[in-house]
Amino acid sequence: MDLINGLRAFVATAESGSFTAAAERLGISNRLTSKYVAELEDRLGVRLLQRTTRRVGLTSSGEELLSRAPALLDDLDALLGEVTEDTRGFSGTIRISAPVTFGEVYVKDLLARFAAPHPELVIDLRLSDAYVDLAAGGIDLAFRIGTADVSSLKRRKLGELRSVLVASPAYLETHGVPQKPGDLMAHQCILDTNRRNPTRWPFGPEGQEEFIQVPGRFMVNSARVARDLAVAGHGIAFCPPFVLGDDLETGRLVALMPETVGPYHPVSIVYLEGRTLPRKVRALIDFALEDFRREGDWKKTAKT
After folding, report:
1. In the chain, at which end, N or C, are there fewer CB atoms within 10 A of the end residue's CB?
2. Residues in domain HTH lysR-type (predicted)?
3. Do 33 and 84 belong to one domain?
């Protein structure tokens, strides 16, 4: 049997918790994944996984192997990649997670720019507004907006963004222009439920925020839909700048109280602690750091 395939199947199964998830991560069948792990166990003469009808768990031998096998496989991938990439460019697959709207508006184009010189490179972009488990999903890196205390992740900060309080001219003509944060309590607000506290909007600098409890007739789990509702005159939205496009320049939307709107939030790339990053993943992180600074006129609205 192929020892490397066995190790890859074992690590994917142990990290994801099931043969089905491991098979999807490896791009092979469920049956072949199970076969590779069984053959590895036969070769080593120990049971590595405890199988149940719903999930697999690790034996003590499996725990010991999992503590070292991922790093060995990462080192092998890095070695093989460096041997071939000097002459052929990057190859293989990079799996990336990103928030839905941020991924649709910006990350997809960033990845296209990065992949253009590398025809053998495969980009697997997975969009979700949930904080995806990188190990279980076999994700190489993830784009994150805001902070999250996850000790198993390393973080590289790309920059920072600040949401913009916006409404359409038609809405403001009918309902008036709020002059201070407290005025929002008398307005129709559009709530983005992807936010940690969708009904509490922050104002003021970080560490000194004032939180206003706002009413909301519309509740949506999409910043883009919140923007669309604001353009249509249904209320005031609190939007990240990347969903606004040229709305402020064209006058479709008006920025409200820009000097008081809440703090900036970091935009970061995160990846697993203690794993050797393949050369192509390190290159993507470096590319993203430069690209974020250089590309995207939408970032200007963060300074409104």
Report:
1. N
2. 1-59
3. no
